[in-house]
Design a protein that fits this description.
Elements: E1 3-5, E2 8-10, E3 16-21, E4 31-37, E5 44-49, E6 56-58, E7 66-71, E8 76-81, E9 90-97, E10 110-111, E11 115-119
Length: 121
């Protein structure tokens, strides 16, 4: 079970940093992705990072605004979200898998409980 944190409510143009960790096991050998699910909409891939941090992926709607990173010494993956827009409002989930880095959520084995991000004026 992964643990996502850092969500909250911000105004448009604001920033948040989400964190993902896995109490009880190490994420160092796993690719990790962030997904989000707005209310009454499909889950979508936001960003992914390979286990070694060398490969990253961003959804078109967040490119240039979001940055994914990982600190393997702290066993934590981060999603820095800047220039937030109302359409970024969603529950954000982190997920982990071995041997795959990408946006197909069906391939991911471990999921966190989600953290709510609300962007509103």
């Amino acid at each position: 079970q992964l643990q996502a944190s850092g969500g909250g409510s911000v105004q448009p143009g604001g920033s948040l940093r989400l964190s993902c960790s896995a109490p009880g096991f190490s994420l160092n050998d796993y690719a990790v992705s962030w997904f989000r699910q707005p209310q009454r909409r499909e889950r979508e891939g936001v960003s992914s990072i390979s286990s070694d941090g060398e490969t990253t992926y961003y959804g078109d709607s967040v490119k240039g605004r979001f940055t994914i990173s990982r600190d393997n010494a702290k066993d934590t993956i981060y999603l820095e979200m800047n220039s937030l827009k109302p359409q970024d409002t969603a529950v954000y989930y982190c997920a982990a898998v071995q041997g795959y880095t990408g946006s197909d959520y069906l391939k991911y084995d471990y999921w966190g409980q989600g953290t709510q991000v609300t962007v509103s004026s």
